[in-house]
Design brief:
Helix content: 40-55%
CATH class: Mainly Alpha
Number of domains: 1
Strand order of the largest sheet: 1-2
Number of helices: 7
Structural class: mainly alpha
CATH architecture: Orthogonal Bundle
CATH superfamily: Winged helix-like DNA-binding domain superfamily/Winged helix DNA-binding domain
Length: 140
């Protein structure tokens, strides 16, 4: 149904790694651990730093670290950083005009689906991602 970009995937991998490690890690270390493109990961980490999700330190003891507690970083925040404000459909896009909006029977249900997906993704934190057992309990 939805597909995240490779940059968003890399961001989630890197953030999850930093959460588990709970210590600074270099782009090279993360890339080697998960067999990722070092150049793309470096760009993703820079974007995460610029957005205030990571703190970067130069030097031998440097690397990247989370700027906030994992429970304070939402999956929605990360996805929006790399994907932008995506809409479920043109019906749920506020920047698209629809001549049939007033009488359209699908508009309200589509807006409701969009809101539920957004709320769900915004409600998942980086800490939640680390708890794989919790996801296994949920029916999808």
């Amino acid at each position: 149904m939805f597909k995240l970009s490779k940059k968003a995937d890399y961001a989630l991998v890197a953030l999850s790694h930093l959460q588990r490690k709970n210590a600074p890690a270099s782009a090279k270390e993360i890339a080697q651990t998960y067999n990722l493109s070092n150049q793309m990961l470096a760009n993703v980490l820079k974007s995460l730093s610029n957005a205030g999700l990571l703190i970067s330190k130069r030097g031998t003891l440097g690397g990247y670290n989370l700027s906030r507690q994992p429970g304070q970083i939402s999956l929605g925040e990360v996805i929006t950083l790399f994907e932008g404000e995506k809409s479920f459909s043109d019906c749920s896009s506020m920047d698209k005009d629809c001549v049939s909006a007033a009488q359209c029977p699908a508009r309200r249900p589509v807006l409701m689906i969009h809101r539920k997906i957004k709320d769900f993704v915004d409600g998942i934190s980086l800490a939640d991602l680390a708890n794989h057992r919790e996801f296994a309990k949920q029916s999808i």
